[in-house]
Amino acid sequence: MAAVSARRRRPTVTLVVFLVVVILLLTIMALSRTWTPKLGLDLSGGTTITLTATNTSGAGTVDQASLEQARTIIQQRVDSLGVGEATVTTTGNNQIQVSAPNVQSDELVSLVGQTALLEFRRVYQVAQAVSYPDGQAIELPSVPASVEPRPTEPSTTLPTDDAGRQSLLTEQLAWTPAATDTTDFSEYQCSDSMPQVWDQPFFACLRSDVSGSQSSGSYKYLLGPRLIEGNLVTTASAGIPQNELSWVVTLSFDSLGGSLFSSATTTLAGATSPTNQFAIVLDGKVISAPSVSNPIPDGSAIIQGSFNQSSATNLANVLKYGSLPLAFEVSNVDTVSATLGGDQLTAGLIAGLIGLILVVIYSVVYYRGLGLVVFTSLVVAFGLTYTLIVLLGQSMSFALSLPGLAGVIVAVGVTADSFVIFFERVRDEAREGRSLRTAVETGWDKARRTIVVADAVSLLSAIILFILSIGAIKGFAFTLGLTTLVDLAMIFFFTKPLVSLLVKTKFFGTGQRGSGFEAEHLGIAATRRPRPRARALANAKEA
Amino acid sequence: MSDIMDTMESTPEATTPTKPARKPGFTHRLWTGEISYDFVGHARWWYIFSAVLILISIISLAVRGLDLGIEFRGGSDFTVSATNVSSASLDDFRQAVIGSGVPDLDGTTVAAVGSDRVAIETRALDVPEQVKVRDAIATQAGTQAEKVDYQQIGASWGQQVTRQATIALVVFLVLVSVGFSIYFRDWKKAVSAIVALLHDMIVTVGIYALVGFTVTPATLTGLLTILGYSLYDTVVVFDKVRENTADLDDLRETYSEAANRAVNQVLVRSINTTVLGVLPVAAILFAGAFILGSGPLEDIGLALFVGMIIGAYSSIFIATPLLVHLRMAEPGMKQQAARVAKRREKLAKMSATATATTSAGPAYAVEMVGDDVQAPAVRQQPSKVSRAKRNS
Question: Among A476, A542, A463, A464, which Cα is nearest to A510's?
Answer without folding.
Answer: A542
